[in-house]
Structure formats: structure tokens, C-alpha cells
Amino acid sequence: MATRSTTLRKPTLTRVLHDVNAPAPVQAAQIAFAVMAASKTATWAEAISTPRLADSVRLTAHQQEVIESFRFVLPNLRRRGPVVTVEACPECGRWGWSCSPVQKRCSWTPGCSGAPVKAATTAWKPPSPADVLADGEVVL
N or C: which end of the chain has fewer CB atoms below 10 A? Predict the structure, then answer.
């Protein structure tokens, strides 16, 4: 009788990239969506309960600080089904949940002329691969 060889594969290490120039709530959502994508989950709760997640995803110290600062945002994000993300105004700093296309002008602060930025559920790509440092930080 033949036996199958059971070798353990080393997990693929995912380096998370995000836009460091985006408003902080958007950065937190970008990081969270990258972690959810790496763990093939739809929510933050599912992602952090994935076995061996720490072996497959690496966050920089800055990314960990952003996630910690906006941890109250993470449970409400959804990558699938009714997608829920964050959009924020870089001018006034206000932010909110978003299930629709990004607004053209800020509607959170009267008189604000800022153009809100939305965290995409797909991986953020830097303008040039040369802008990515060894630790995953992006220089723009």
C-alpha cells in the first residue's frame, strides 16, 4: 500500500503596503483589508482568528501603531457582501463609513473644500516598486 508524503509547507509571507500619505483612518482600513485578503476572510474578526496569521503577514511598527490607534474602526469593515470601508477628508480630518463611490467634495464640514479619500478593499500599489523600502515602508 502506498503512503502519501505529508510535508508541511512554509507559509507565504505577505508584506502589507499602504499609502502613508492617506488620512490615518484610511491607512488603518487599507492595512486591515490587506490582512483580510492575505487570510482570505471578509471581516477583521475572521482575519484575526485565522490560525497562524502572524506567521503569514508582517506589519511594520508604523502599521501596528495605525491599527492600534484605529482599532475601533476595524470590526465594521467588510471586504465581501455589502462592502463597508472608510472614507476621510484630508483637509478637515473628518471621516465616515462608506458603501458607495467616494464623494467629490467633503460633506462632513461646512465650507470644507477637501476631496475625500476612500480605502479600497483591494491591495494598494505604490507608484513605483523602487519606492518600497526593505521593511515595507513606502517613500513618496
Answer: N
